[in-house]
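Submission checklist for the structure archive. All mandatory fields must be present; incomplete records are returned to the submitter.

[x] Identifier: ABC transporter domain-containing protein
[x] Organism: Adineta ricciae
[x] Residue count: 1315
[x] Sequence attached
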Amino acid sequence: MHTAIRYTPLSNLAPTTNSNTHLNKSFGSRLLSYCPRLISPISWWHCFTLLYGLSTRKERSFKYALLHLFLLILVGVWCFLYWMITDDAGRYLTLLTSVSGNKTDIIHGRHQFDQIFWRTAVKTIWISITFGLINACGVSLAAVWRRRLCKEFYNIIFRSPNGCILYETSQQAAYDLPTQLTNDIRQFTSHLSITFFGSLFFSGFLAVSTAVIVFSVYIVKKTNGDKNGIAICFGSFIFSVILLILVSYRFNRTAVEQLKSKGKVRSFLQRLQTNAECIAFFASSRFCELVSYLKLNDLVHKWNVQAALWYAAVNIPLILMDSLGGFITYILPAILFFFLRNAQQQTPEDATKYLSIIAFYGYVFWLLSSLMWISESCLIAITLGDRLWHLKQRLLRLQTFHLERIEQDQTNQITFESTDLIEVRKLTIVAPDEHEQRILQSNINLYARRGECVLVNGPTGCGKTSLFRICAGLWPIDAEIIRLPARQQTIYIPQRPYLPVGSLRFQALFLLDIRSKKNESVNIDHEQIRNLFQLVNMDYILDRYDFDAIVDWSTHLSIGEQQRLAFIRLFALFKYRPEETSHTLVMFDESTSALDTKTEAVIYQILQDLRVWFVTISHRPSLIKYHHKELTLQLPSGNQDENFFSLNIGPEELIDRANNQSVVLENLNETVVPETQLFNVMRSNSSPGYTALKKSNNFVKDIRDIWKVIHVSFGEDGKLLRIQTYTAWCICLAVIGCYTYISYRLTVQTGAIFRVLPDYAASKIDIQEGRSRIARLVWQLLLHIFGLSALYSIQLCIGQYLAALYTRRQSRYIARLLLDDDENHSTLYHTSTLKSLPNIISHELADLNVQLFFLLVGSMYYNGLIGVLVKCIPYTLLLVQQSSSTKGVLIVYCYQIFISLLIMVAVQPYFRANVLFENSFALFTNAQKRIDLQAEQIALSDRGVMDIEHKQLRSKLNESIRAQQRSGFFYGLLVACSVLGNWSNTIINYGIPSMIYFHWSPNATTAEAASIIALTVYTGYLQGNLAVFNSHGQPFSQVLAAGRRIAQNLEQMVRLRESHYQARLSEMLCNRRIEIKSNNTNQQALLSLNNVNVCLPTDPLSILIRGLSFALNSSSSLVITGPSGCGKSSLLRLLAGLQYNITDNSSIYIPSHSAIIFIPQQIHLIEGTLREQLNYFRQAKNMSTYTNDYQLKELLTRFNLIHLVDRYSLDLSTQLWSRTLSLGEQQRLIIVVALVALLKSNDGTYVNESSIKYFILDETTAGCDETTEKVIYEHLQTNHIRYISISHRHQLLKYHTHQLIIDPKNQSYQFLEMS
């Protein structure tokens, strides 16, 4: 007996949690599980372990330690300057009080004021610079953390044995490594830095906690041990925190669902964009994809509205804290003095002490409020840090699992490295499934010496590719013995080749480059490369592209051209490095599936001439003659005892035969992506890949374009949306008016109460009068504070509701541009190169509107632009009325204008640096996604490929890090300029009223000093309102950046749509395309082409087929053959209207798109039930749903798909069928879907032939074996369904009446009638 490690699914390697159990918990238990997360030592330990664990110690440097030390010093300096500025505020008040009480004369008071004022100004500048440096260094530290974390994960992933971790994580959607290694790490490091060091809107935890302790001790000491004020501050803070916790859990749950719904929309649109060509062939976007999108859009809008409601609820305690700030600053010291201390022992001198620390109370409460702002970033950092820590542990366990598996296989003598033979003994193929282990094949035996080539064949789903993955080490081994050459001596070429980023020369010599020794140059000239391309009849590519051209080859080459490019690499290696490849084994997995038999024969003849030792996995019987042995894997038939797999070898070898014990269907996800290139009316309009933000110096044009994006048309069905929008705006403006009035009343009452304490300190009133004045107004004041909090929360709710309405309006408009097409438009297909459109529709539109209405209406951090401007009116009138002078008002406004100009200057470099960072981060994210999409190809490739991808990804990461640090420097500059206005509140609130009294009052008296003290309240509220402008710089830059990006993409999409519309209109007006009406019985030919040139999609001047002419009648069927890249798929696009007939004096007579069913090579399957998938074409053609279950099951049985009903039923299970089914099953299923579209509604017969003229099949049976292929075509013939086939297979000729042979070298063709 042998021992083997059974495969353990990745999801089972980590502790599992039942989300349903969590959802069924009571609210109290969920609240208890949510609250401790912020203070959980385990979660914090996970975060710090990620950043400072043992694995990262070796990467520590002097600069890294110096950055930490410098940050701590800056935090200490900030706290010291903060204390000194706060103390200066009290000095202004005590100085005015002393003058008011005749304790200090005006001349001496003016001298003291001048000294305090200039010291305060210098301290304000220094504290702004210090806080800017803290933020700049914090961003730099976050970038360093991000680089260290990414490098650590990359070391685990790219240095795993055989690339197992890279492969397995790409196969399981639960991991989503591209998101976790890009956005999650970025968010984790950024929010952790914000938590500790602060941001533009609040200070960090280190500074806040230090300042709170120092200020509290100072207040208690200054008031002779009075702790009541500190207790009230902390009590109010705790009350607000409890209230926040009660509502924040539901808000966070809503936010999670909101993000999930947006993610579903983005995934849906990305899937549509990937399959854009197929959807254009199906002409299904109007009745299928658009309907599905509108349902998802309704779901997103639902969660957006709920998020707006809970956002308002969350803001109630936050706004309450902000409103209580004025009460704590101006009213609390008076209440403490007059009500909470012994009135008999109070003296005016004691009142002066309370007056001197009045600002400390306000700042302590403001610092405590900052902890609530910090909690949001802290929770994000803790959650993501915990998630990343668990991801790291799972990857480490997976790495350990594979290392132990390989070691155990070697210890138990299961696997051996051999350069002379292949031996497989008693191999069992087990599919790694998350829920169960499915046996695909068992008891497989194979023996072949070096030089003996083996063919592994069998029907679709029998486990051929699974055997390929086991040999590559990607799947665990369950066998008695496996002998294979070492991994570095084996080359694996999958069905879809690996195409890294690089030039055409780099692609051709890729294997040579990665297998060359260090410092060994590859001296291959262009002529030698051209000869290699000529071997596989692909030298025409060299005429289209330069040797040094760098493009996305996976989209510019068809799948057949990609496969031939893989063989060019192989030929170059074996031709120019014969001594290094003498013991190399090559394994092919359907590597010629997209090639014609002639090209395939040429390739295998060259392989034999080069003496290549290879194993081929294929179902093509034409390959048998190029192999010495054959391993046939069979699916179970009626009697399992008669199922065998055979090893057929040459006449001089022994024949081994073993019983096949258990064979089940294998669900493989081997989607073959064909050529998906865009025919551009103007090639300059296309921008494949990530669309970087273009530079623009026209600010007015940018604003105008953003305005157009925001105010797009409501649409024909947008009447209700229009009414909702206008109603919400009216309510919003009314609430802002009420909020402004309450703010005005609150300011007046606060000023009246604040005068009590200075009057008593100046001995102008007694203690009883002071108590009565406070008691008369304080309850009204508290009522106004709570009303203000409620009104502002309603204001924010309406603002976010408006954002949701505008998002719904814009996303539906863009989606209709993309999907609401008739058969003469294919906007989705023609804009498929705009890769950012899915993210724009799903996320960026919502982000734009959220930031816009934060800017206009307000957020939890700042009031909106409308509210600020409206509140300035009563505050200004109040200040002018109280001071009897406009100088103070002018100073406040002029200073705010100066700060705003300063911020505008600082925003420009930050905006440019941030755009560069976002672009570099997007490139880094795209590189990560590309690796995830090609994970299997990378894992199957040479070890050098892993190193190359690792190096390139590290390069993109470093570029992103440098851009982030540069952006952080300018962010620090912006923060310094912004907080200069905020930290000037001591000068504005207390210094300016004192300056009015000491320097600008010509006949100043001691009586006026008391009124000037009350003036500090009004200047404080006006300055606080105007200081909100300082916070608008960041949201404005975000709105500008997002709006410009969306506007540019939308403009490009509209331009492409209009260009293609004009091209189609020109084609129709010139009679180059004439649509045959369904009721036209006089037309003998159902399809005909006359003197048509078929051109390259990306270059209309490059002709592939010249002067094509043929005609098909009602009894004709056509097969189009020719080598890969000869123009077959281009001809299909021309027939479908995705390319235009630009040939003069030519014509195309073709039925309407609704009368033809196109089935391209790349198949688009929906996410839905089996019945919904089966009725997909009927829905696309606006037909009723077919409900005859008996006939549906009969069709599925005929094409060997009845097991889908047994597994998933017709209506109960929702699946994404492109991932659930193997390629062969997908192709058979789409044939069934097409046949269902022909069925009558009442019985199982097909509709009249006048409804559907033709099936056009493009390599639709490439993933099927000959038996299945025969069943498909015989069914079409039996039911008199006309069809046109595009295929490489010569065995299909017998099912057609005509053949079109394309010769790419001469740009010619032959149209033959089959005998």
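[x] Structure attached
Curator remark: The longest strand covers residues 1099-1113. The longest helix spans residues 285-339.
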